């Protein structure tokens, strides 16, 4: 709504100035300046012309932008994030109609301002949907699935707006071939893309918590089981310390103006990579300690949720190969026994 209010206020001010310039007193001043061949005559006439042009632009923009008011009001008053999805298409449709019809509101600079303001409103709604405080409340209540689901909703709504915009950008090429929406995407979506990246980072945080929390109650069998179980529980304790540092930050994780997030999240990632290396070593030892194929499969099953983490995945690549080879060897033995009998 800021853009609409801006042009409405500007039109009101310029209309007031225009009315004053049309008054008898100002006309007399202009006649006097002209008669006396004053040096102020030309600059004043130029200023009047600029006012007339600016007034025409402001009134035209106010006229064409005002139909957007009802959509922006619904966007601002929406109580939930998912319900704003249905507003994106009529908003973009209205913007394209304005672009086609307005004499002034059909230049890239105007569209950039409008789209950025819409993006800011979407981000605002997404932060109301899920902020850092609510996120950690869900984590503390072991509601990680709900936290992930809410983050996915934020990602989907933001991505949907971009998708709708690109649909209408394509339409502008056919409907306004002489003046399509030729604007770099980064100029429009720089802040929305930053928010999408932040959502992905926080989603990685919640997924990491979900994966590592499996270690809390894990018990490993075998001859080295007790030692390896102690190592796993220590890794989990160290992870909890790392997580506590993220929980204790003095800002909202979803706030793009909180620039410390990048450094804090980088530290979180770096410490987790070291924990993953330690965990990969434990899994390797547990795998080697299991003497049967069934035991080795059970070992991998214990760590199933963590096997997709890249460092652990890389470490266990050769173990998978070894396991498949052992399984193939056993199958061959079974086949030979079957044939012989």
Automatic annotation (TrEMBL):
InterPro entries: DHC (IPR026983), Dynein_heavy_tail (IPR013594). One of its GO terms (molecular function) is dynein intermediate chain binding. Pfam families: DHC_N1. One of its GO terms (biological process) is microtubule-based movement. Residues 2-340 form the Dynein heavy chain tail domain. It comes from the Eukaryota. Belongs to the dynein heavy chain family. This is Dynein heavy chain tail domain-containing protein. The lineage of its organism: Eukaryota, Sar, Stramenopiles, Oomycota, Peronosporomycetes.
